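tl;dr need the bound structure. longer version: we got a ligand (uridine-5'-diphosphate-xylopyranose) that a collaborator sent over and nobodys looked at where it sits. i said id run it. heres the input, straight from their email, havent touched it
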Amino acid sequence: MRITVIGCGYLGAVHAACMAKLGHEVVGIDVDEGKINSLSGAVAPFYEPNLNELLEDLRETGRLSFTTDMTAAAGSDVHFICVGTPQKEGENGADLDYVYAATLSLRPHLRAGDVVVGKSTVPVGTAARLAGRIRNSEPGAHLVWNPEFLREGHAVADTLQPDRLVYGVQDGSEDHPAVTILDRVYSELLGAGIPRMVMALPTAELVKAAANSFLATKISFINAMAEVCEASGADVTQLADAIGMDDRIGRKFLDAGIGFGGGCLPKDIRAFMARAGELGADQALTFLREVDAINVRRRERVVELTRALCVGALQDKRITVLGAAFKPESDDVRDSPALSIAAELHSQGAIVTVTDPKALPNAAKRFPELQYEFDTEWAIQGADALLLLTEWPQYRGLDPYELAGMVGSPRILDGRNVLDAAKWRAAGWTYRGLGRP
Ligand code: UDX
């Protein structure tokens, strides 16, 4: 099939490459010339494991191209909308400008029978509005809402082997003509047994909001338990292991630490609360306010613990932050807890050096006032305290005996509870975890 993918960021670039991998002829369209030039040269404009290799493999097939020219959408059977929906400036709601702009510029190129497929995360009710706009310009075109659930760092695998496919269609019926067309797009996945569910547009939009809210709630739940553990001398990692053995609870997403960040969970729960308010259902999501508050509190707690680790004063203390990305295997620093903690320590007078294997260029754009050092050994020289804030494998594997001779004072705060506390203490370090005695 011939497929258009509009928006070539973290979602769209991966989706375009994966659709081409499935055998389709794909054109990726984005207004950002820099992104298009990079992708045209088979180089992703961000770090995502396995993506560059996939782009390179696809180069020989000639099935994948990128352009800034929207007229390239003409002639495609299916048009995926993968643009961003960031948080509005100074508000909780989602900014839908890119979604509306993409639909507007696509409309002149639609033909009867074409299917527009929304993948961006949008407030419930958006798809119905877009369907109306599409019908007004081409009554024979259809809109499907097909949310993505991919995780950065696993995006290629999550796109090619998703847990499920969700199709939202106007009448919520399996017989909707767009269902057969989307089934052809995903025929290889469906053939491999990936479940797919057809539902009405608002349900499909809500599936995404509900899934992200549940994940955020699970993380904040365990971080709330970490607060109680800190107050009572209990260990949250053992607590998580024990409750996680109950199948109904499950151990995944119960890692207490500095909290969640990234381009999805924080802004999605806020947008969900804002939308519920507009719908008169704000009471239903009041608990998400607490989920958000617990999450923000973890960052404040780390600053306080660092102060305690530095014996009461941050002024002129040399702090090395290991990790700037919001999670490992990503260069994304959007709402990164690690980076926001680094910036707060800097504003309180500490001399902060940040290191990260992939995210330093993005971090430096966001917080130019911090010092950045790519080499871990250089970054930790003479440090008064180390803060492990993003659990990259290279930081998890650091040797406390080797490091002890490089730092100024052997003190470490393990913001992700991934280090062997006994081993670090045996090597002479003052070790602090989160929610651990
Ligand atoms: C998330 C959802 O998982 C994905 O389904 C959705 O499509 C987009 O949002 P992503 O933002 O890539 O994906 O990251 P995820 O792996 O969910 O992690 C989010 C944040 O939670 C990270 O900052 C991570 O460090 C943190 N986290 C995760 C924890 O603090 N504890 C955990 O147990 C799990």
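gonna send this back to them w/ a short note. The chain is about 45% helix and 15% strand.
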